[in-house]
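re the bet — no i am not wrong, look at it urself. input seq straight from the record:
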Amino acid sequence: MKRAYVFYGHSMGALLAFEVARALRRAQYPLPETLFAAAHRSPDLARQGEAVHTMNDEQVMGVVKRLNGTANSVLSDNRVMAYFLPTIKADFQLLETYRYVEEPPLECPICALGGSLDKGIPAEDLERWAQHSKSHRFDMSIFPGGHFFHKEHPEQVAAYITSQLAELSYLHESVT
């Protein structure tokens, strides 16, 4: 029995989900039923901006604060931040040194999600995800909020994902 699954990746997680799906395809494993890519530009688009992973700790903290996804109680705890800063820098390094390699589009639908106030990920960069789906079944939704829109409007994001999965289920039922 085939077990259906989907990938949801937010920010760096969207890029990871995309690359894992490509690795699964190369290994001839079943692909996810849908790839939900949130808050990340299409992988073929070069990253813009300053290299955060080369900044000093204070500058990295400033970037993390501007992203507005970490609680102030965590940001203000020097011991906690001293522990997590190397990991945060490593995450930025992974993002900033990623190089897209051309491969055929994935044979699964892709849904791109973004925040209306996320200045780093404009809608046109999300729209480019469409070219990475061979089926060209692509959908995009922009939610109110910034880079972490899913924290600001979890019910809306969940409703969108549920509606996409329901449509996918309907499509499968109508084919069989």
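see?? The chain is about 45% helix and 10% strand. told u. also Residues 154-175 form the longest helix (22 residues). so pay up
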